[in-house]
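Hi there, hope your week has been kind to you so far. It would help a lot if you went through both lines with me. No rush at all, and the record is pasted right below:

***
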Amino acid sequence: MVYANNKQTFEHLGDWDLCNNDIECLWTRLNLKATRPTFIGCVYRPPEGNIDNFLNVLENKILDIYELVIADIIILGDINVTFSCSSCISGAMILELT
C-alpha cells in the first residue's frame, strides 16, 4: 500500500506490480512540478526467496524505466539482505544496482 498526498500528481503502475515466491513489488510514478518523473518501487523479498531471481527482476525493471524516460528511481522496502556481513555477496549485488 502506498499513501500519497492528493495535491501531488501520481499514478499507480498496476501493470508493473508483481507477486511471486521471490519478489513482491508495487510501482508508482510521481510527477512533481519542474522535475523529472520519479518512480517509486516498494519491494519485498521473502527470506526464503531466490536472491538471483529477485535481483534479475529488479534490475530489469530499472532498465525498463530508463528505456522509457530519464527519471529518478526510489526503491524501498524489506529485501532481507544483510549488508554488514563482509562475506555476504547478496549485499554487494544490491549495492551494484545503485
Summary: Residues 9-96 form a domain with the Deoxyribonuclease I; Chain A fold (CATH 3.60.10.10). The mean pLDDT is 81. The first strand starts at residue 9 and ends at 12.
